[in-house]
Every structure is written in C-alpha cells, then in structure tokens.
C-alpha cells in the first residue's frame, strides 16, 4: 500500500530542527568577528542558517573593511571557527536530544515512513553521534556530499536518491528560509519551524517538533 501513498519519507534538517547547535555557531563566528573588529549579532547569525561554512564566512565578513583577505586566510578563518565549534559540539550528549523529538521520530518510523537527514553541515554525522542518533536514520545527506548549499535543492535530492524515493514523495522539515526554498526547488513539501516559521514560509508550520505527527496525519501518512 505504501507505493500509493502521497508521501513516503521525511527529510530533516539537523541544526535547529533535530538539535540546537546554532548557539555554538553563533559563539564560533562571534569570536572570529570580534578578532577582526567587525559587528556580528543574532540577525547575521540567522542569515547563516542552512548556508555552507565558506558562504557563512562571506556573510560574516560583509562589514569587514580592513586589508583584503587572501583565499588562504579565509580558509584559515573558517578552519579556526570550525575547530572552536567542534570543541563546543564535544559537549553535546544524548541529553541534548529532546525526548519528544525521539518519540516523534519513532512514531513516524512506525508508520512506515523512511527518515533521512538533509543538512548543509560537514559536522552532521559527528553531531548525530554525539546526541545518540548515529545509526538512526535511513540516509544522511550532508555537507560532505554536496557542492551547492541551500537554497539549491542538491542536499535534499541526494537524500531522496539515497533513500531510493521519488523527491515528490518527500516531506522536508526545516528551520531555515533557504531550506524551505531548497525543499520547494526539489519538488518536496516544506514544513517550517523556528526562524522559517517566524518568517511565514513553508507549506505547514510547527509550533513544536511534536506537532509534526499531526501535520503528517493530515497529509495522509
Ligand atoms: C548548517 C547550518 O546546518 O550547516 C549553517 O545551519 C552552517 O549555519 C552549515 O553554516 C555548515 O556547517 P559546518 O558544520 O559544515 O560548518
Ligand atoms: Mg537548520
């Protein structure tokens, strides 16, 4: 019967959906911005959601008016930020996975839905291991297997390919406006939470992650 269902898989963004590492991104980029003497705040941090590390650096450097930075120096700054970020990720543990997220994921799996990750992060697998979901998902598409980050649909199309499921049968859950745009560009249904929900984008909106169960029931899953 599954083959006749409109939706057969859910692809989850990671940061800001399954767990909350945005504060660590904020601290990492803020430390770089402070050292360069440029402003950085939550508004800028929100623009980094779903965007690759190097593109994020480009956004962080927009107010920079010092000596031009070479490509090598930019790579070095991104690497320093990532080292600091990884140290903070080391503090994550299964306690950082909200029990209602786990319960909701288990519920969706019990309905026969395939579950995947679609994240721009090159640290996605490490984060999943830290929070105890290292082996949980049926497929992981992340920053290590894409050449274009959200709003390009590549990360979600790869997730559908790894699952062996038609993109049109996938639902995406995202906290980034760029991620909802990527879902739509992939021909997928986009469920917004967090910042994306606040910005009014998406085909449905979640107040909490657990609301996803009802959204999917309404979609016939
Ligand atoms: C996304 C975050 O998940 O990953 C972005 O929303 C981040 O803010 C991007 O820039 C890349 O992350 P990483 O871990 O590869 O530096
Ligand atoms: Mg996100």
How does this model look, in words?
- This protein is α/β, with parallel strands linked by helices.
- The protein has two domains: 9-21 and 94-218, 3-Layer(aba) Sandwich (Rossmann fold); 22-89, DNA polymerase, domain 1.
- It is built from ten helices and six strands, in the order E-H-H-H-H-H-E-H-E-H-E-H-E-H-E-H.
- The protein has a six-stranded parallel sheet with strand order 3-2-1-4-5-6.
- Helix 1 packs across helix 4 (71-89).
- It is globular, with a radius of gyration of 17 Å.
- The structure holds 6-O-phosphono-beta-D-glucopyranose (BG6) and magnesium ion (MG).
- Magnesium ion binds at residues 13, 15-17, 49-50, 175-176.
- Magnesium ion binds next to loops.
Number of strands: 6
Largest sheet composition: 6 strands, parallel
Number of helices: 10
Low-confidence stretches: none
As an assembly, this protein is single chain
> What is the CATH first-level class name of the largest domain?
Alpha Beta
CATH topology of the largest domain: Rossmann fold
Query: How far is it from the N-terminal to the C-terminal residue, by CA?
Result: 11 Å
Question: What is the H-and-E element order?
Answer: EHHHHHEHEHEHEHEH
Which CATH-level-2 architecture of the largest domain? 3-Layer(aba) Sandwich
> Overall pLDDT, averaged?
96
Q: What sort of overall outline do the alpha carbons produce when their principal axes are compared?
A: globular
How large is the radius of gyration?
17 Å
Derived structural class: alpha/beta
Trace the largest sheet across and list its strands.
Answer: 3-2-1-4-5-6
CATH superfamily of the largest domain: HAD superfamily/HAD-like
What hetero molecules are bound to the protein chains?
6-O-phosphono-beta-D-glucopyranose, magnesium ion
Q: Percent of residues in beta strands? A: 5-15%
> Which percent bin holds the helix content?
40-55%
